[in-house]
Amino acid sequence: MQGTVDGFSYGLVTPLVAYFMACLGGALGLRCTTRSMLVAHSWRAGWLALGSVAIASGIWTMHFIAMMGFSVSETPVHYDKPTTFASLGVAVVMVGIGIFIVGYRGATGTALFTGGTITGLGIASMHYLGMAGMRLNGNLEYNTLTVSASVVIAVVAATTALWAAGQVRGFLWSVGASLVMGLAVTGMHYTGMAALSVHLHGASSSPGGDSAATLLAPMMIGPLAFLCLAGVVVMFDPLMVMGKPDWTPTQQRPGVPAHSTAPYGGRRPLPRTGRDRGHRSSRTPQNW
Known about the structure:
Layout: E1 5-6, H1 13-36, H2 41-67, E2 71-72, E3 78-79, H3 81-105, H4 109-132, E4 134-135, E5 138-142, H5 144-165, H6 171-194, E6 196-200, E7 210-211, H7 212-219, H8 221-235, H9 238-242, H10 274-281
Antiparallel strand pairs: 1-2, 3-4, 3-7, 5-6
Helix pairs in contact: 1-2, 1-5, 1-6, 1-8, 2-3, 2-4, 2-6, 2-8, 3-4, 4-5, 4-6, 5-6
């Protein structure tokens, strides 16, 4: 028996809020990635880590806000807590790997393709691992073609967003990129949900796990608090808003002074060799 699946139990409320969270996480993460390219290597890892967690938190929060509007008419839907937490961990790790590749190798060529692919697969893995955490009186079945389309959307969206972050063209550029990324990630989510069908069990039983209201709402407090903290960091860093450095880092090399010295106006005397000194001493000085 097939269950009646509804992904919009609260109308457009959950899709719109989910899209906003995806845009917020994407905007903060992309700005942090851009900022990492304006500093020395010693600070770059910190900015990239902040950006990775921001993007992963935004995507994870988006997913489960959208899932709060998901229901199956014939059975209650519960969630397994360890699997739900694991989906957040997978998102942070895989998104982090992709962002670090682009942050240190640049948003071009092989590095961009590799980083975008890993990041997109991380987004898709988070989605389907979160779906695996659902507990209901039935089995989840997926259409392979639609699932493949959702993975392609995730990879293309992640690659495009990382390319935009590497352009370092200012605040409005990153805002536009985050809006596109939020639309693509939300579209990937609902494309994956369109691939889902529920085959109900014959005997009615109560599924394990916790309900969405009991489990998901408290779990979102941590990621939401982190996104607020990352937003404060972005707002109070002038380089994050301008998108370009107002200083040039000093290149530390042996024998090179940290600050430039005043230019010397006269001609620099040529070094005198021992041969020149001996030859001059043998001459008789003229025009003293």
